[in-house]
Structures
1.
Amino acid sequence: MLAMLVVILPVAAFSACGGSLTGQTRSFSCFGTTALVAVYDDFAGSGADERLEDCLAKIKAAAADIENSISAEVEGSSIAGFNAAGSGETVSIDKTAYEVLREAKRLYELTGGAYNPAAGLLVDLWGFSPRFNGGGSNIKKPYDRDDPESELPAQKYITAFKNLTNFNDVELSESDGKYYAKKPSNTESVDGVTYTMQLDLGGIGKGYAADVAAGILADAGYGHGYINLGQSSLRLLKDARGEKAPDWKISVASPAGAGNYAEIYAHDISVSTSGDYSRWYEIGGVRYSHIIDCSTGRPAAGSVCIATVLTASAAEGDALATALCVMGETDAARFIAEHDLKSLYALRSNGGYLVKTTLQSGAYKITDNSFNVN
Ligand code: AMP
Ligand code: MG
């Protein structure tokens, strides 16, 4: 998979107060990808290494808990339980799933449904769920195509599954410290098989985990470093070079498929990127990507091919970056203006790329000059 965001580490790091900051990085697997935690601190003091190991162990455990709660692929997770439930059934979910679903609901409403975690069946229909990517189950589904390299999904499934994406109909509730989600009561039948809404929190989960990890780093007293979750969700603390150079340099991968097209300079914020270039296939000269427009039941067909947003919360940024790719040029521009969103995004235009941004001129640089900025 393509690297979407890369933090370039400074070679030497020093704190403003004269003590030497050195970097330690650790990576681990979660959400089918790699999480990288970088911490810059004065590791010379006694107990410094233990403090770091303790903090990293907490981050790893928290990420595993989140995955075990919200991944549809993990047997016994809250979301797997929801997906397996019958129409109209209320299932018990854990607190993490409840919190993520509440945030997902807020973002679904905010984006007018462009971000929609009820895309699960459509994501699977179009071949972008983990079972097509070396993860999850390899159970065949009635709607699987004989030759996915040349054949599109059947329209009857697109229509049926589109009717099972009204995320507003999911009811969340809390009582006596227990949490519940009620599955909508509508169903769709195709060729004698009945389908119910399936959730997919893949568009927000990594961001949510990055936020939790950042909270753990802050609680441990670390102020310099970052968390890079799967190259698409970054939570930045301060750069290791101190007050004189507080910004990290982030390289944003090119939607053209190789190299980078831009750099962003930022700190104490999250940077999230989504794009139609990270997972896609082409049939009959048309590109089909993993970002689904639930209003059509098909992969997003607008011209926004990569969107990077800078937000306080990485969960919000994760969902908004996905949503901008669904919205397309006009709606994305309107949404960004209405919400005063810090963003850098590219449109496919006349065989090339057109970049739009609300970042200040010193906060980014276009490094590939075949991309035109306006
Ligand atoms: P991201 O990589 O953050 O853009 O998230 C994309 C992933 O979220 C996809 O691989 C799907 O699993 C899921 N997804 C696809 N379309 C949507 C959508 N419109 N809203 C929410 N999640 C989506
Ligand atoms: Mg996203």
2.
Amino acid sequence: MIVCRTKEELSNEVLNAKKQSKTIGFVPTMGALHKGHLTLVQNSVEENDITIVSIFVNPRQFNQTEDFEKYPRNHQDDANLLDEVKCDVVFIPIYNEVFNDESKLNVDLKGLENILEGEHRPGHFQGVVDVVHRLFVLVKPNRAYFGTKDYQQLMIINAMVKYCNVDVQIVECPIVREVDGMAMSSRNKRLSKIERENAVVISKAIFEANNLNENSTISYLKKFVWDKLNVNKYLTPEYVEICEQKTLKLCTADDCVDNKILLVAVWCGKVRLIDNILLNSK
Ligand code: AMP
């Protein structure tokens, strides 16, 4: 596996691949890799001639300094894992390699950036589209892989690609979970043992809500999940919402025309966790 630290090194690899008409699969990450990330990489390896993974903790998408500073970083472990799943190139840039100017990408995200995650993390999605667009320009991928763990992010990336007319196929990959159901996340590494034991209540609550869906109203389901989380002394729910799957329009009563998705953000100590589940249709 080739490790690129600069734009020039990366561009050489991209140019070589393009000259040989090889397809490029791309997986942008912030590192601290786990099986969720590696599944995206494996999908890319299967579907493309070469796979490029980026590891970049993008300060522009963090609205809390502590979250940025404490974000787990371990490039050597990450590189070993990527090598094992046959990644071809890993791009691990420093800040100035990605942001060599202060300009910000201006994308009309149609308000998607202001709800759910966007409401609680102002500026987050502008930071995400900015970095992903810059990485797309460098990597020139045929396909790029994103997890539904960050469901709203996936929708935002789709909106950015459409708005900016980027020629890339966005491939969505389902949430990979731990054996007990907890969604894998780099931030799980920051949980203490007791916090981790209690954090499983998040996935349990949304799975239970899914089982109740057929016979329950939206407000009942939201309150059911909120209460399950809120009653646990290690957890503080930030939002529990049910939205239309395709548009992320909030469902207030039983007025959703599309399939529904339940999304939550929960604080577990000082760590903010998100999860979601597509609700079985009624
Ligand atoms: P991150 O490093 O957290 O920015 O994530 C990089 C990519 O991996 C994003 O597209 C995430 O949605 C995806 N991802 C993170 N955790 C999981 C998971 N548990 N299952 C599937 N995809 C994931």
